[in-house]
Specification:
about 100 residues, mainly alpha, 4 helices, elongated
Length: about 100
Amino acid sequence: MSENNIKQNPEIDPIVLSLLPGYIKSRRLEIFQLQRLLAENAFNKIRLIGHNLRGSGGLYGLNAVSEIGKKIEEFALESNQKGLGSSIQELHYFLDGLDY
């Protein structure tokens, strides 16, 4: 089963499923924030968002969000604009592909 098909995952609590649309909406808004912060070279703020993504994705059964958050956090520590740009795009594509 694909991680993208959330509603078919029996391991995810129904209460968590009910919260998922709000979580995903917030993460989509965060993509715009990350892009703006990247343009400003605000690496510490980006690192904090990456850290939060890393911690929160798994709570919603979205391990890919946690993995991408880890990359964002690490690339921000390195001030790696290219890696950050790729990771932000990866997050965008993942969220757009979710079926929930």
